[in-house]
Amino acid sequence: MFSQYKYWKPFVGPFDPCKPIRVKSYNTPPQLYMNFQPPGLQQFTPHEALMSGTLWPQLYSPYPDPHKGGKPHG
Predict the structure, then answer these.
(1) CA 40, CA 21: separation in Å to the nearest integer?
(2) What is the pLDDT averaged over residues 17-22?
(3) Residue 33 DSSP code
């Protein structure tokens, strides 16, 4: 299984004037990991699809990053 969230540790200089951010992250969309849309994918109900922004659960990407304690939409 892949993670949609990627993390890295930026360089923190000894003379940086601001409080350093030790770990940064970014989100990669799930369609990057799917070569093509196979037939017969599971589908959300119409209400769930409207709340999630996609008809297919495999293409759903929560926002914000759930690993940072944010509450994902949906």
Answers:
(1) 43
(2) 90
(3) G
